[in-house]
Design goal:
8 helices; N-utilizing Substance Protein B Homolog, Chain A; mainly alpha; globular; 142 residues
């Protein structure tokens, strides 16, 4: 959602309407050992929407933090995929304190491996690791 919003400059609701829980449930059902019911898909999509809207609404603060952790990198120079992953992760670190920080970082790295370039996982890991060392985020590390 953030990637689409970042590149297309669509309104939040327009982006969100393009993602249907039923489509997500069907996609997950096709994967080995993955069974999603529609209620699980609805719950996952609501959390995704929380992350998406929160990251957009707090983008200035999030981008400042990302740039402070990304030595010699401005946010506009980052790939749209890396930027979207980092924005989601930093939002989660700042505002979703119930999610352990290590889980946020691990999930961001996995997203970078799946959707980013060869260097994305290392880049995302480096930025988030640096931020965890110098910023005081709510919640626990583990």
């Amino acid at each position: 959602m953030l990637y689409q919003h970042d590149l297309g400059r669509s309104r939040l609701e327009e982006v969100y309407q393009g993602f249907k829980p039923a489509d997500f449930a069907l996609e997950m059902a096709e994967k080995p050992n993955k069974r999603y019911r529609l209620d699980q898909a609805n719950e996952a999509m609501e959390y995704a929407r929380t992350l998406f809207v929160g990251a957009v609404e707090n983008r200035t603060q999030i981008d400042e933090l990302i740039e402070s952790g990304a030595t010699n990198w401005r946010i506009v120079r980052m790939s749209a995929v890396d930027r979207s992953i980092l924005r989601t992760a930093v939002y989660e670190l700042l505002f979703e304190g119930e999610v352990p920080q290590i889980v946020v970082v691990d999930e961001a790295i996995e997203l970078a491996k799946r959707f980013g370039s060869e260097q994305s996982a290392s880049f995302v890991n480096g930025v988030l690791d640096g931020l965890l060392r110098k910023a005081d985020f709510p919640g626990t590390l583990e």
